[in-house]
Every structure is written in C-alpha cells, then in structure tokens.
Amino acid sequence: MQDEFEKQFAQLKERLKAANCKAKVTKNNNSLGLQATLPLKPGDQDQKGTGTKQYLISLGIPANLDGLKTAEEEAYELGKLIARKTFAWNEKYLGVKSKRKLEVKTFGELLERFESEYFKNHKRTIKSEHSFNNYLKELKRRIPLEQLATSNNLLQILDTTEPESYPRRNLAISISIFAKYFDIDVNIAEYLKRPKAQKRNIPSDSQIESAYLGYEQYANSRQKRGIKNRKFEDNWKIYRWIYGMLATYGLRPRELFLRPNIEWWLSTQNINSTWKVDELAKTGEREVLPLHERWIELFDLKNEEICIAVAKYFTDSISYTRLNSNKLANCNWFKKAKCGFTPYDLRHAWAIRAHLIGIPIKAASENLGHSVQMHTNTYQKWFSLDNRKTAIDTATAKQDMMKVLESRVKELELENQRLKIIIERLELEKQVIK
C-alpha cells in the first residue's frame, strides 16, 4: 500500500508540473499540504522586498490514496487563484496554527506549552531532552516572559547580544526552534554567524599529572576544616577517577556518567584497556582506546574499590536532570582541585596530543566519537604556538633522521661493494696458489 501511495504521489507531482500549476503538493509526516509562493501573510515581514514569500499550507489532508485526490484538487484551485492574482488569505489557508498564534499573547504563555509541542515531533531520549533543556534555559534567561510573542521583539532581544559571539549564536538557534513550533515568522540568518575561536587553556601532560594531585590535597584540607555530611566524604575519589579517565581517554564527561560499564572495564578479557561508551550516549556506543597507557596506572584507574564505588554512584544517571547534576558536580571538583582548566580542555588536549604523536586523524576522530570534519574544524584551531613548534620540530627531526639513515644506507652499500671486491680478489688469489 505504501509503495502504491509513493508511486501515485510521484505521478501527481509530475501532472502538476506538466500543467504548470503554481502550487505543489507536499507530504509532512502523515498529512498532505500545499507549497506555493504567495502574497505575504498578515503580520509577516517583507524580508526581500518582493511582497511575496514561499509558504507551506497545512490543510489536514491525510497522506493516503484518497487524500492524494483531494490534495490534487486543492493544488489546482490554489494554482488558479495565484495565476489570476485573486488569492487572499482566509481562514482556510491561514489554518489552525495561525489562529492559535493569534490567541497566544506572550512569550511566557508559549514557553509553558513549548515542551509539549517540542516532544510531539521528537522521541524522548537523553539526547533530545538535553537539546530541549538547553533551548529552554537559553530562552528563559534572555526573553522577558511578559512580552508579546512577535518577530520584532525576538529580533530586538537578539540585537542586545554581542555580534558574532557564542551567546548570540546559541540564543539565535534556540529562537529558531521556538519560533518554528509557534509559527512566528522571524529571519535570524544574520545572527547565526559562527563566532571566532576564543583562546583556550589546553593543559600539557605535566600540568595534567600535577592537577591530579589537587583532589587529594583538597580532601585533606577539608578533613581539617571538618565535613558536614559524612555520606560524601569519599566523593573526591570518584571525581578524581573521572578526571583520570577524561585525561586518558579524551571522553565527554557524560560518557562516564551514563551507565558506566565497570564490569567490562575490570574484566580480564579487556586486554587493550578499552572503555565501552553506552548506546544512550550522544553518538551511540563505541569502544575507546587510551593514548597514554601509563596514565591508567599513574591515575589508579583500575582500582577495584573505587571502580565499584563509581558504578554505584552513577547507577541512576539516565535522566537529563541527573546527568546535568553530575556534570555540574564534576565542574565544581575541577575548581576545588584548582586544576586551572575545564573538563573539556582534557578532551582537546587528548586530540592535540594524538596529532602531535602522529595518530591518523580518522583514527583519532573515531576514538573521540565524532566525524573527521568535526575533528579538523574543532580541534586544529586550538593549536598554540608551542604545539605548532612541537609539531614542526618533530616533523623536521624525522626528516633529519631520514637523511641520516639514507646517508648511512649509501655508506653501507659502498662498504658492501668494497667487501665484495675484496672477497672476489681473495678467491682469485686462492685459485692462483692452487
């Protein structure tokens, strides 16, 4: 039945095209609608100065064989109105969404409905909840709830942010998602420019090793001051273990919080000391290799007692709220231990270190759980002058070594030829003596 529908849908589109109809039939989820360039809808902005805009019109026609017939009739009817220049926005073409938009007055009212509208089109997962809560947090922080929900007000709010900054881009993305669900016509393309890379403090290997000691130092100083809640007395060991794993494997923090597979981690079968990222993580499941294996021992990452404590501590970390709480706690521990950098700086450091020691970009990006393009665009820009110098010095040293080896090979070849001549001469002398 579905194949027959798709076949007839394709034929319908060809008929409309052959008839030069000004309207097209579109399919969205389980309903059919129309698409056409029309005079501006009341209240919409004339961004291009043409007086027209391309619109998608939802008529609530079901996406089935009977619906195709109805949709074709509607397309021809709309096409005639456009051709005769007699089209006018009426209740039929404005649709339910536009009437609902007129009923809701403020951003506060819309934000109360944002979650239910968003998850009508998104399956609830850890990833989708994380995305939604980021949008909601950004909107609530920036948008006056009592203001009318208009495109002009949204643009004015965006104009209060610094041009080409991360706050502007993040807010613009959140507004675009929000506006889509409530049919607010707003053009934010100019607010989505990627910001220039900010300076980032990427720690060296020695700094990473030194910062590890800060956890125990803080714990000892806390003992002297007295601990209010004995239940959390040894939490520093858990978050120090998190620190060591982030440094050694370049993981995202949530890839340790989300159903940590300690059984595999401590298994005798885990001969390569890989960390298994759970399937619910941002980019799905994967198996991650360490870069500095010596850090596994240095940071005591296979300590069975601590690993079991980690498994218990993060047992119920499968909700956005719990994951976010763990993320904030981890950031706080970085501050308490006076690391001098953030959890994600360890991920950047892993990527840069991998490049410096010659790990192919494809292998490094797969280990980190992202695309080669993402790896190149994101991590190569954090190369400091020192890192570039190290990379150049290493490459130059390799070239110098190659020249030395080539020269040595030539010397050995000449020596080999000389020895062959000596052997041949000795053989001749031997024959003469006989």
If you had to describe this structure to a student in words, what would you say it looks like?
β4 and β5 form a beta hairpin. This protein has a three-stranded antiparallel β-sheet with strand order 1-2-3. It contains 19 helices and five strands. The chain is mainly alpha-helical and 434 residues long. The protein has helices at residues 2-18, 65-83, 91-103, 107-118, 126-142, 151-159, 166-181, 205-212, 214-225, 235-249, 254-257, 262-265, 294-298, 304-313, 320-336, 343-356, 361-368, 372-379, 385-433, and strands at 24-28, 31-39, 52-62, 275-277, 286-288. It folds into four domains: 2-100, Double Stranded RNA Binding Domain; 104-192; 212-245 and 254-382; 384-434. α1 runs parallel beside α2 (65-83), α16 (343-356) packs antiparallel against α17 and α17 (361-368) crosses α18 (372-379).
Task: List key phrases describing it.
mainly alpha, 4 domains, two-stranded antiparallel ribbon, 3-stranded antiparallel sheet, extended, 7% strand, 59% helix, 19 helices, Double Stranded RNA Binding Domain, single chain, 434 residues
